[in-house]
TrEMBL record:
Signal peptide: none annotated. It comes from Alkaliphilus peptidifermentans DSM 18978. InterPro entries: LarA-like, LarA-like_C, LarA-like_N, LarA_C, Ni_dep_LarA. Residues 8-208 form the LarA-like N-terminal domain. Residues 282-419 form the Lactate racemase C-terminal domain. It holds the Pfam family Lar_N. GO terms for molecular function: lactate racemase activity. This is Nickel-dependent lactate racemase.
Amino acid sequence: MTIYKFKYGKTELQAAIDEGAIIDNLIPKNSVPIPDIQKEVLKVIENPIGAPPLKEIITSGERVVIIVSDITRLWIKTNKFLKYIVNYLNSIGVSDDDVNILIALGSHRPSSEVEKESIVGTEVYNRIKVYDHDCFSPEELSYLGNSSFNTPIYINKKIIEADRVILTGGIVFHLFAGFGGGAKSIVPGVAGLETIQYNHRLTFNEGHGTGLNLDACSNKVYGNPMREDITDICRKINPDFLINSVLDTDGNFLKFVAGDFEKAWLEGCEVIRNIYGISIENKADIIIASAGGYPKDINLYQTIKTMDNCLYGGKDNSVIILMSECSEGLGAAEFLQWFKYKTLEEMERALKKNFTVPGYAAYKAAYTGVYRKLILISSLPKEEVQQLGFIPVNSLEDALELAYQLSPVDPKITLMPYGGNTLPILK
């Protein structure tokens, strides 16, 4: 028996596990952290991919909007590199007064002032105006026609009115957009609710009872209708520059990519594949996974990404033990309401009639509960967990005991201590 530790909120859970039963321990590949963040950020700004250097794009007196990720993406550590972008803009003649920072909330809740400071860093917070995007406020949006997928395009007016737009963010596998980062700063980041909803509808096949579109999945860009729609809309906006980061599971920066919003991002996606795409020989009977601790397990809504990664590594009807504190609950007020529908087919029918992003997340949770036996360790009320179709337990030891009861004799186990990052890829 070997003691294994898993991140849970801002603490850890641990348990003794039979090492002989473990067929995979999905650890990201070793990578060397960047020793000098400032030097690397300036390097990629001056040597971008598919675009001129930023000093050849922006001139003094132009109004610049920088899009940053919200509090649920605090792991990106925007506060560690944003100041170098702002200082660079100063060096080419752009004053602090000509820069606005827009937090890409998508349809997430507003940020508190404390959270805004945490996202951008104290120095930048005290120098630059920081705004939340509000997808629910029509007066803050501009309509730009429809995408090639017929998605109505509503975008925050600050983006349309700016002379120059810079995207920032972090790249990870994403359960239906292929990868995070890139054009997701625009959609859903600073898009209107109608745009977000139409785009997310592309995760389903057309027609009644047709289920999920399996091309809208992790690790797929081309042929993924949701991602292609996001890219098409972003091309219409034509942001001037992108700076995205890749981090390890300890929050160290491994890579920055900069330049064209798509070409630079695609290079970052390849880095993610190489570090976090883990090849497996066989699927497991039991998966033991952590969402990765705070803020990745801040709510159940964010934990859906870990559930999806787990689906790739386990057999049909296998057991998932998932550790996610969910300190802010489910993450969306309407989330639980979708579970009044008792089957996936009923939920799908309702979603296609009145699509919402929390509704889709609820569907994905329900989908996991149907095709897997999911044991959840969290701070959520027991009744809520049961309503979701999951099994609530109080400790990792209790979860393991139950998992063995629900599994065949001598079950094979896969560990996913960084479940929000690592993607099992069957050979």
